[in-house]
Amino acid sequence: MISVKNIYKTFHVPHKVYALKDVSCEIAAGEVVVVIGPSGSGKSTFLRCLNQLEKADSGHIMIDGIDILDPSTNINKVREEVGMVFQSFNLFPHKTVMQNIRLAQEVVRRRPAEESTEKTYTLLDKVGIRDKANVHPEQLSGGQQQRVAIARALAMDPKVMLFDEPTSALDPEMVGEVLDVMKTLAREGMTMVVVTHEMGFAREVADRVIFMDHGEILEVGTPEHFFKNTRNERARLFLSQIL
Ligand code: ADP
Ligand code: MG
């Protein structure tokens, strides 16, 4: 589903930084990959390159057979296939939950209002907040807002879902409800790339764990391998700090 070959991404403010350095990986359909690593290691940049919020400087990225770095590829088309959920929810504050989830369905997917409304209720059922359809985001808890953000991404019927620290901004008591929604998605076969510090989620749900540091993938393995036998010194150090 996702094939990344030798991508590089540099930033030049204030001096040259390799946010991604020769990153390659293959992610199969239905696979759940958890990306971990210290702050500044390139995790967000990696996700953002997968949906073209950032453009890699060089290398190749194929998503479901589409070469997303090919200048002739329609970026909006790519974004329709790749859903993204951020730490900070990013809901439209002046729109209701229903409007937030309907908007792209109607504008981008050109669904009739009746169809997008029905789809929105189905998704709100899925994330457990059908009763919140007509309220504004500010009237919701952080966990509820994040579930709306997930429903909104799913409304586009993406082939891949990217999550960038989706529970990091939440009060601890709300982390579980968001992870539960993500676990359900994983069980249903969604292809997911998840940046998270929730190692319980990684253990339980991930097919593979990727460890990044200084813009490089330093280790890839199953959770069993990773948490018990990682030989990479920096990965061991990182784990000892967060576990
Ligand atoms: P992580 O998500 O693992 O914390 P990031 O991908 O956000 O890491 O950042 C990787 C590196 O790229 C860091 O050194 C960061 O400062 C730098 N970086 C990321 N985004 C930008 C940007 N828009 N401008 C300049 N530097 C950036
Ligand atoms: Mg980040």
UniProtKB/TrEMBL annotation:
Residues 2-239 form the ABC transporter domain. Signal peptide: none annotated. One of its GO terms (molecular function) is ATP binding. The keyword Endoplasmic reticulum does not apply. SMART domains: AAA. CDD domains: ABC_HisP_GlnQ. Keywords: ATP-binding, Nucleotide-binding, Transport. Gene3D superfamilies: P-loop containing nucleotide triphosphate hydrolases. InterPro entries: AAA+_ATPase (IPR003593), ABC_ATPase_HisP-typ (IPR030679), ABC_transporter-like_ATP-bd (IPR003439), ABC_transporter-like_CS (IPR017871), MetN_ABC_transporter-like (IPR050086), P-loop_NTPase (IPR027417). Belongs to the ABC transporter superfamily. This is Amino acid ABC transporter ATP-binding protein.
